[in-house]
Design goal:
Helix content of chain A: 25-40%
Structural class of chain A: alpha/beta
Largest interface: A-B, 31 and 20 residues
Order of helices and strands of chain B: EHHHEEHHEEHHHHHHHHHHH
Largest sheet of chain A: 8 strands, mixed
Oligomer: heterodimer
Radius of gyration of chain A: 26 Å
Largest sheet of chain B: 3 strands, antiparallel
Strand order of the largest sheet of chain A: 6-7-8-3-9-10-12-11
Distance between the termini of chain B: 57 Å
Number of strands of chain A: 24
Strand content of chain A: 15-25%
Number of helices of chain B: 16
Number of helices of chain A: 22
Strand order of the largest sheet of chain B: 1-2-3
Helix content of chain B: 55-70%
Shape of chain B: globular
Number of strands of chain B: 5
Radius of gyration of chain B: 26 Å
Chain lengths: ~650, ~475
Amino acid sequence: MLEVRNLRLGFAAGRSTLAAVDGISFAISRGETFALLGESGCGKSATAQGILRLLPAAGRLLGGSVRLDGEELLALPEAEMRRIRGHRIAMIFQEPATSLNPVLTVGRQIGEVLERHSGLAGDAARPRMLELLRQVGIADPERRLDEYPFQLSGGMKQRVMIAIALAGDPELLIADEPTTALDVTVQAQILDLLAKIQVDRGMGMLLITHDLGVVARMAHRIGVMYAGELVEVASRDEFFARPRHPYTQALFAALPDAARRGRRLATIPGQVPALDAMPAGCRFADRCPQAMPVCRERAPAWREVAGGHALRCHWQGAGVADAAGHAVTELAIEPGRPFLEVAGLQVHFPIRRGLLQRTVGHVRAVDGVDLAISPGRTLALVGESGCGKTTVGKALLQLIRPSAGSVRLGGADLVGLSGRRLRAARRHLQMVFQDPFASLNPRLRIGEIIGEGMDALGVGSGGERREALVALLGQVGLPAAALDRYPHEFSGGQRQRIAIARALAVQPELLVCDEPTSALDVSVQAQILNLLKELQAELGVAYLFITHNFGVVDYLAHDVAVMYLGRIVERGRAEEVLGAPRHPYTQALLSAVPSPHPGDAGERIRLPGETPSPASPPAGCHFHPRCPKAVDVCRQSYPAATLISGTHAVHCHRA
Amino acid sequence: MTGFQIVVLWSDVLVWLLVAAGVGVGLLIARNPPLRAAWRRVGASRAGMASATVLAAFVAVGLLDSLHYRVALDGAPGQKTRYAVEVLSVLDALATPLRTRNEKTYSAPFATRLYAKETVDVPGVGAVRDYPPLKHGGSHLAGRDDEAAADVAFRAFRGAVIGFLAWMAIAALVAAAVRAGDSAVDAAGWRKIWRRETVFAWDAVLATLLAMLLAGVPLLLLAADYHVFGTDKVGQDVFYQVLKSVRTGLIIGLVTTLVMLPVAVLLGIVAGYFRGWVDDVIQYVYTVLNSIPGVLLIAAAVLMMQVVIDTHPQWFATAAERADLRLLALCFILGVTSWTGLCRLLRGETLKLRELEYIQAAQAFGVSSWRIIVRHILPNLMHIVIIALVMDFSGLVLAEAVLSYVGIGVDPTMTSFGTMINNARMELGREPVVWWSLAAAFAAMFVLVLAANLFADAVRDAFDPRAA
């Protein structure tokens, strides 16, 4: 149905145009999902925008053809193109929060598409809108139709986006990272919905994603993009069973999971080449473990290895080189005496209303959390967004003042400390933040950034300072020359290394890592995880690893604590919690994670609804409204901890 | 040459302090790569550099007008030297012919006769009502009025030729410098400039310079023998008044920002960073200040200050000092009433910055709040401050004109665009109409403000974090 041939797109930069998408070809037939897979900056989104001719101002169409049922889209006048957009090809975007207009009701926004493409307006359109909202699984559509986007949750906004996309009865749906901004349980709901709608309507779908799990769940055929080119196209089964391109293989090998515990993850050295410095031969040659001289001279042509499985690579081998990663010394530390103990930690944010700003309630972001961390071990704090896991991390460091509870560090309580004593205590705890672009001051040199903690805490003196800084940079794998450079000269992964070096500069015993890899690509994530593991083996530093990525937890964590609405619902050693989860929420979370192995379907537990607001948590067990096993007692009292084993505890009446 | 006594007015001190601060900031920028890169983008902007060239000419006039002195009076030998009451500036000295050759009353640009008929005694005819010849304007023609047009054209042409030659000399220097500064030998500096291969927008600077020289040199040559912009009611040369107004405009634009900047930056950052009751207090202060009609507040303050000045004549040695203090007071009042906008802007930006992770990382190290403000917040606000400064400048020059027009601006003895426009109010109602005073003030102010606005645009584009 859709046929893209030799599409070339570029971006104007000064007087030259840099090709961001360089000659890609693929076809999508009715009822088929074609997934474009690739890391950030490889041209996936530009391809989607090019198909709809919605390129940003600097974008240029350089050539090629896009045919929809034989009709050439690139040659159509703009007025004709508007008929195609929304009516025959619809698009849903990554961020549901910004793709809906906040000042229009849901009904107005769906109505706009209906009016344009089916001539329905006013009262006549209303039944159709209700039907659409029902199709995307929104309960009580009559009420929702007159609500504004801010009254909806993230998952519901994405459902509304899908309803808007469906309103024009499209034949092809382009989904640009449709679930990246959503929590796993909601992501599972949306993916189910998309799959169901596609089957019902026989739509074609172009799915753009970087997540192998989502691909395994959704796609029929897969195209891997690298640096503006398609490098491998295969059907799903072929793709997951026999990936042939070294890049694809490296992507698989870089995924962290339990099977790779104790080994280094494979990484892809270097970075995606810049648009203005594309290599002449194969674009992956510089980072490829299998590169041969011919790779640098000639760009490989398409080569078909099996029915429907084609790739662009000179290398004829097929071996999956997963064994390459050599072992990292795993510190076989038994949990010794914990050096950091958190008891009954509460962080309540007051809700103020009215002229006199009186407190009318509290957001219970963290509501009684107990944790213990032993030296040299990694505790993963897992949960969906809004469950309070980041707040726990910041409250440990006293960046947010806890409302109650204690944080005992080797016998001294940090809560309530201030001034010099707090500063001295801060030396023992440091934090690595989520966004490497926001966590480094763009106006300071790397040396000044890393040295800041040393200054503030009085570590190291003038002469030895520079040596210490160079040693730190060496530890995180950066050259000494980096000291005099500015953050904007570094890539995301390098910035995260700098942030880790900054935290390590004061030799902390505990590093709070707040989703340190969620803003990074898979191959870079693998580098950072390797680094964290090495540092732990070398320095014996303990990590509190805050994340929602179960692959990372599987790979890295010794202990796991699962949070829901400000409380820990299950805790234990990683193999206990992940292998034999006892809390229904943990079970649902684990089953909702899309697995990058199409084989292990397993039993899927789908949670209804979304996490309630921590301002008014449900009575009784916080989880009971969504729990498939809830009984009467769950509605009445919050369950106490049930010990499953010496280390495994769960808060559930039914455990 | 008679002796003289250097007079340092308060506004001169501030002006030269500003120049020194400008040089200091320039050195600081040269040492800071991100800022240097941003200013390099300003340097690459054609409109920005063309307007900067025009601004530089205005600033040069303003600076020449900021070196004051008093001439010694001829007294009997042995007596204590006494100095003239009149305070002059270097600009006045350079423009002595313009300053001293006053006519009786109005005369049109390039006129050789007055604009009003008078009763003249013509020998042999008796008393005749006619336009009397000017004392100075076109006096070298000795009454041959019909030759005036040809003379003006010839002098203008001569001026244009001299201007062009001067421009060629400057352009050759620039071309040589461009070639020397670049090791590439393939293209001559001259060709590089016009093919826009230089990083700095030399072509825009040279083109503007050419236009300025072609217009300016003939004007200066003609000004020696004619009143190029005419004369005003008391016969003063309007061109001279325009030159004198430039300093007033620049001082109002620059010194006012100097007054308001520390207040706005300090209060804005403190409110945004510390939140809580500090934020409440600062917000209430500027909300209240903003709710008082601006002109009313300024009028009240200026009138009160006028009373203070009038009751303490002993404070001032000369009239210039009195006018100068009034000018500074006006700057101060404008500054006190105009910091709220920038303060609000900076508060908002600080609110955003304080949540950023590098600030939290610094807090996790126990870095003190003031150090975080100086090291992490202030540098990241600098682009807003710079943009606000250049954008406010033109607004303040216009505000001065409005206030002086209303009569609550600068001292009536001080020349400014506002007082010129204020005087022109009556001239427009006169028959036949006197248009040149207003037109000259308008044109000069228009060029100054337009150049400042274009420059502000270039600066804003260069410092826009999204474009960087």
